[in-house]
Amino acid sequence: MSIDVAAVRLALVDVLSLSASVLVYELVPQHPTVPCVIVYPPDNINYMATRTLDIAIYSILVLVGPRDPTSQEVLEGFMSGTGDLSIRAALYADRTLGGVVSNTKLLDMTSGAYSLSVGGDDTVIGAEFRAEITA
Prior knowledge:
- The chain is of the alpha+beta class.
- The protein is 21% helix and 34% strand.
- It has 3 helices and 6 strands.
- Strands 1, 2, 3, 4, 5 and 6 form a 6-stranded mixed β-sheet that branches.
- Strand 3 (44-46) and strand 4 (55-65) form a beta hairpin.
């Protein structure tokens, strides 16, 4: 199997559509609306990591809102291993992403503050997840 970058992105968007109240962008937006999930192109692709498989590392960015207790609670829902907003639970519900890939493995997560644009007080809290996709 060889990786189809666009098909994997669309499959990730599909499985990460966790809630009607959280927008999952199909393409990287110029001005994201929060809360949202953004699937970035792969950071790295190892073509033919084994004789027949490619391995790609995708970044999934979750932006929830300004730094306040409500935003923190929402972010913790995304970070949790279980629950309606859990990125981990969504990815592991179907590790083949509907048959598009051989396997999906969530590698890690880091959180922090992110600026939505230059100027103004538009800093929001969020988290970045890295997923290893084997195709």
